[in-house]
Sequence to fold (164 residues):
Amino acid sequence: MSLHDPLTPPPNPGAATVADLQAMDGAQALGVMLLRDWFDGPEGRTRVEGVFAEAFGPAGGDMAREAWADFAALLTSGTRRPVMRHAVTCRCVGADEAVIAQVVTLAARGEREDAMLVLSLLVPGDRLLSAIQTAERAGITLLRLTACWRRDHRVATAPSRQIH
Fold:
């Protein structure tokens, strides 16, 4: 006997927790956090734009913001169903967030066929080619940002040559 009511639709599977932010690759975790911040309203978008401007300067920041905005627009209007995400402060990662993080990093690394396969979980086939191009731009932005942060973190946490 099943306790599932067949007349009640199941919750959106895209919200199911599949990972922890701290266990993810740095670029993928950053992508999830940027995605959440972007969709957290005007203040969140301003924070993301500030991150891009700080890392890439005014002109580079504008290009990064545009790439991220195009990808966000795809996620709000070009998907099979509404894309789910967790709260900005949540440590867990939902299925849709994990898919998006995987897609942008695969696309940015030139693994286009794998990225398209994963993206097909969210985007219908007739929109897949244009969607993967948008994901590539966002992914390259994400990898560049990750590299900037790693470089800055290494400089900030470099061991001192002095003992005392």
In short: The radius of gyration is 18 Å.
